[in-house]
Amino acid sequence: MINSILFVVLALLALSSAITAVLAKNLVTSILAAGFVSLLASVIYLLLSAPDVAMTEAAIGSGLSTIIFFYVLNKVRRSGRHD
Amino acid sequence: MNFGSLALGLGFLLILIGFWGLLTQKNLIKIVIGFSVVDTGVHIIMVGIGYLQGRTAPILDAALMQRTAAAGNQAGASADVGSLIVDPVPQALVLTAIVIGLGITALLLAYVVRLHEQRQSLDISSYEDLKW
Hints:
The structure holds two protein chains of two kinds. By secondary structure, chain A is an all-alpha fold.
């Protein structure tokens, strides 16, 4: 029962932060919201009894891809400033 | 409440939201973010398909062997481990797909950097070379 409530809460949070990621005007907000969707998805994998997928999603989907997004954002902003 | 069907619904809604972002946003980085949301939704659907209610993770450790022995004693015969665990095949597929998704995201972002080097713009409307 507790698990069901947790699942529904996580699903609603994931949906709202996905909408934030799509709609936010600020790129940093958008990237962080997309990373948060991945983090919530990794907890959902744990509830779906897939702990290995949860670990991979938390490390790669949530950590590494957010880092790549911020790296590209930094590169794009810096090249925009110089030229 | 079945987690499997809930996961299917959540994944489908995430795919819809991601495609909405993919099609309506003008910023190139926002388009890549929409793609990554679609990717997450597809992964949740794939894990949700393999999920079976009331079963445990497909990791063969001592606790699972104890549960198997207990189930065998209850049935009066030797129980099968396969009747206690969820399907591991979609999970293995998703594990690969997560890493491939990271590769595709990195490739798309590399395109974004190259395009920005040429035109100094992240707006999709300023790239009209293939538009007719």
